[in-house]
Design goal:
The chain is mainly α. It has a domain of 35 residues: Erythroid Transcription Factor GATA-1, subunit A (Erythroid Transcription Factor GATA-1, Chain A, 2-Layer Sandwich). It is built from 3 helices and no strands.
């Protein structure tokens, strides 16, 4: 019996063995933690700041 390469790779969040129902994670908890990282912009690619579309500059100013 041969072990597939997917079974050898652990959960990218905690390192435990992955579970097919939650692949590539081991549990719904790790799957949700990964989603939160995406939503909180925890995964970013380094580079120069992106240009803002016209009109967005006004939202950051506090003119009170």
């Amino acid at each position: 019996m041969t072990t597939s390469p997917e079974r050898l790779r652990p959960c990218p969040i905690c390192g435990k063995p992955r579970v097919p129902d939650f692949a590539p994670f081991c549990s719904p908890r790790c799957r949700d933690r990964d989603l939160l990282r995406w939503l909180d912009e925890g995964y970013t690619i380094p580079g120069p700041p992106a240009d803002r579309p016209d009109g967005d500059e006004d939202r950051d100013r506090d003119d009170t």
